[in-house]
Amino acid sequence: MSEPVASPPARQLLHLVFGGELEDVAGLTFKDPDKLDIVGIYPNYASAYAAWKAKAQGTVDNAHMRYFIVHLHRLLDPASTALRH
Q1: Is 3 helix (H, G, I), strand (E, B) or coil?
Q2: What's the pTM value of the predicted model, to 2 decimals?
Q3: Do 21 and 77 touch, CB atoms closer than 8 A?
């Protein structure tokens, strides 16, 4: 019986989760960029989404507070064809 072939390690697809209070709910300008909440950098979309969801749900009473997921892997390698999460 032959040994199983090891699959190559999954590509690391870094994601940044951050948020802050917006000047206007319809815009993307932060009221005070010095007070941005940097939640963290995550190795995949699923863990970033879980962190984003927890923060977003925790601030649901403040309509001006928004959290975002930034696909850092797309910024680090813009020529990449891997545009998946």
Answers
A1: coil
A2: 0.79
A3: no
